[in-house]
Amino acid sequence: MKKILVTGGTGYIGSHTVVALREAGFEPIIVDNYANSSGKVLDGLRAILSSDVRNYEVDCTDRAAFRRVFEAESDLAGVIHFAAFKAVGESVQKPLAYFQNNLGSLLVLLELMREFKVNNLVFSSSCTVYGIPDQLPVTEETPTKPASSPYGRTKQMCEDILRDLSQADDNEVKSILLRYFNPIGAHPSAKIGELPLGVPQNLIPFVTQTAAGIREKLTINGDTYDTPDGTNIRDYIHVVDLAKAHVVAVQRLLDGKGDAVETFNVGTGRGNSVLEVVQAFERATGQKLNYVIGPPRTGDVPAIYADVTKATQELGFKTESTLDEALASAWKWQQTLPANA
């Protein structure tokens, strides 16, 4: 059973990927400092997998501590790097923290991978690297324009680091950059799901918490964008589908396929507006939402969704779940949480 190190493995996408890895016959090893997650996620993973997942409470920017993980796990086959701060709005308020953490963690990781001869990396990137695109949908060849937030800039810079590294004479690290669109939903068991600390930064936890009565109302950030109904359009992918894309990417690296650096969009290929998501949630769950229109959020782009032709043709990856199914799973997960979660 090949071991895959998963940084940020108790986070939202990371935890679902841990499950997908184990189900595909890999042994995931978690590294996380719980900066934006909870150790309780390990209980959910244990319930789903009927066994523990080996884990280390380590900050990936702490080279000495992270190095001890590589020493303890000397036969790693690859790494999936999720560990990063990820909220667009927060990054505008705390840019230095985002640059320090997101760039710093990748640099430390790459140094250790090279030292310990771990040569396969799947990197968690984002559609924010496209900035405000001139045309939709975006392909992997769509020019990356200035990012709309410090978070987006960190992802652009991390991609640049990996591309520059691939040109180095002494480089042996191969990487796949997965540009995510908007993950939503939860594991069908409702044992793991999106669990933001404090006020949610993403749409769906706000939706489910409003439906659950935890929040009085959902504030939709702007309705004057250049979109059919004035609200933001995004490509919403079920997190379980997204997790499976990582397994496919890992296997591609282990099979020795592809170039030194490859980039893939991971989405559904469809865009839905915020209002469409609200309507779909009400349809999928039978819950009526109390929502109001608020001001636009700094750093948000009006619309973006993926062309997924490359992932379909070269990775053989295609999403399976509908928007309604993803939203129903998010509501099922919300109902398992305490009222003050």
Automatic annotation (TrEMBL):
Keyword NAD in record: yes
Keywords: Carbohydrate metabolism, Galactose metabolism, Isomerase, NAD
Transmembrane spans: none
EC number from the UniProt entry: 5.1.3.2
NAD-dependent epimerase/dehydratase domain: residues covered: 4-267
Record CDD domains: UDP_G4E_1_SDR_e
Root EC class: isomerase
Biological or metabolic pathway of the protein: Carbohydrate metabolism; galactose metabolism
Cofactor or coenzyme needed: NAD(+)
Catalysed conversion reaction: UDP-alpha-D-glucose = UDP-alpha-D-galactose
Domain of life: Bacteria
Record family assignment: Belongs to the NAD(P)-dependent epimerase/dehydratase family.
Subunit structure as annotated in this protein's UniProt entry: Homodimer.
Protein name: UDP-glucose 4-epimerase
Source organism of the structure: Hymenobacter koreensis
The organism's taxonomic lineage, starting at the top: Bacteria, Pseudomonadati, Bacteroidota, Cytophagia, Cytophagales
